[in-house]
């Protein structure tokens, strides 16, 4: 079965520090990869996505992620975090095909990021 | 934001009672999903739908049923609520193109006492 692992469950950083959140997935076929963010009390919003092409993808708010196929990884990075980046971050991978088609997103367990002033 | 509305947004119910959560979309997307979010587990798929009256189970479907009688509505029913079903429930939608992301509703916080 497909799975997604996020290695860091809680991360605390000071403003302006660099961020890297790890994400590894287990699936042998073609994948679509996502990072979602959930600000406190809100729903999930898409940060960035990878479908194909350049393995370095840029998202909103200065985030980027690199797809390394050989390592089954899709790590999220930001050079300089801000207090407003405090949120929970989820890595997700689409399953190939469900009954009737469609994408099943398999999520990692999430990383709580706290940015301190 | 995608046109997804979940109702109710908050609900407290007693053990053993039936509960129905509603997800309504205005995007005419084919696929609709129900996830539950619990600390330490991320989001887990309960059920999904790939068309009107076409539904299937996800990874944590026990104790839940769904129905989709119209493209725009996807209902999640807890037949007999238990405390283990206390959670935040998210509805999501996605289009036909496989290279597309899912859009999420605002969530429903359900407490079973």
Question: How would you characterize the overall build of this protein?
Answer:
The complex is a heterodimer of chains A (117) and B (113). By secondary structure, chain A is mainly β. Chain A has no helices and twelve strands. Chain A has strands at 3-5, 10-14, 19-21, 24-26, 33-38, 45-50, 56-58, 64-68, 73-78, 87-94, 105-107, 111-116. In chain A, strands 2, 5, 6, 10, 11 and 12 form a six-stranded mixed sheet that branches. A four-stranded antiparallel sheet of chain A has the order 3-9-8-7, with no helix packed on it. Chain A is globular, with a radius of gyration of 14 Å. The model of chain B has no long low-confidence stretch (mean pLDDT 93). Chain B has 113 residues and is mainly beta. Chain B has one domain: Sandwich (Immunoglobulin-like). The chains are: A mainly beta (117), B mainly beta (113). At the A-B interface, strand 6 and strand 11 of A face strand 4, strand 5, strand 9 and strand 10 of B.
**H and E order of chain A:** EEEEEEEEEEEE
CATH-wise, what's the superfamily of chain A? Immunoglobulins
Distance between the termini of chain B: 33 Å
- Report the biggest beta sheet of chain B as strand number plus sense, adding barrel if it closes: 7 strands, mixed
Number of domains of chain A: 1
Oligomer: heterodimer
Cα Rg of chain B? 13 Å
- CATH class category of chain B: Mainly Beta
Mean pLDDT of chain A: 90
Q: Considering the protein shown, what is the CATH homologous superfamily of chain B?
A: Immunoglobulins
The number of distinct β-strands of chain A equals 12
Keywords:
heterodimer; A: 117 residues; mainly beta; Immunoglobulin-like; six-stranded mixed beta sheet; 12 strands; globular; B: 113 residues; four-stranded antiparallel beta sheet; 0% helix
Quick overview:
By secondary structure, chain A is mainly beta. Chain A has no helices and 12 strands. Chain B contains no helices and 11 strands.
Describe the secondary structure blueprint for this structure:
The complex is a heterodimer of chains A (117) and B (113).
Chain A: E1 3-5, E2 10-14, E3 19-21, E4 24-26, E5 33-38, E6 45-50, E7 56-58, E8 64-68, E9 73-78, E10 87-94, E11 105-107, E12 111-116
Parallel strand pairs in A: 2-12
Antiparallel strand pairs in A: 1-4, 3-9, 5-6, 5-10, 7-8, 8-9, 10-11, 10-12
Chain B: E1 4-7, E2 10-13, E3 19-25, E4 31-38, E5 42-51, E6 54-57, E7 64-70, E8 73-78, E9 87-94, E10 103-104, E11 108-112
Parallel strand pairs in B: 2-11
Antiparallel strand pairs in B: 1-3, 3-8, 4-5, 4-9, 5-6, 7-8, 9-10, 9-11
């Amino acid at each position: 079965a497909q799975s997604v692992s996020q290695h860091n469950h809680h991360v605390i950083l000071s403003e302006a520090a660099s961020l890297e959140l790890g994400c590894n997935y287990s699936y042998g076929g073609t994948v679509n990869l996502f990072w979602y963010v959930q600000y406190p009390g809100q729903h999930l919003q898409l940060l960035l996505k990878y479908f194909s092409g350049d393995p370095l993808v840029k998202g909103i708010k200065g985030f980027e992620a690199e797809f390394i196929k050989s390592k089954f990884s899709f790590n999220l990075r930001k050079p300089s975090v801000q207090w407003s980046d405090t949120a929970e971050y989820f890595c997700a991978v689409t399953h190939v095909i469900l009954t009737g088609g469609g994408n099943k997103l398999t999520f990692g367990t999430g990383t709580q990021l706290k940015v301190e002033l | 934001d995608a046109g997804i509305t979940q109702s109710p947004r908050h609900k407290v119910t007693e053990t053993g009672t039936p509960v129905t959560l509603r997800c309504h979309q205005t995007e005419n997307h084919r696929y609709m999903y129900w996830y539950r979010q619990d600390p330490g587990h991320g989001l887990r798929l309960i059920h999904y739908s790939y068309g009107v009256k076409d539904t299937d189970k996800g990874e944590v479907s026990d104790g839940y049923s769904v129905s989709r009688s119209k493209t725009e509505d996807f209902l999640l029913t807890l037949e007999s609520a238990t405390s283990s079903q206390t959670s935040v429930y998210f509805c999501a939608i996605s289009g036909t193109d496989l290279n597309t992301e899912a859009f999420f509703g605002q969530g429903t916080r359900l407490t079973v006492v």
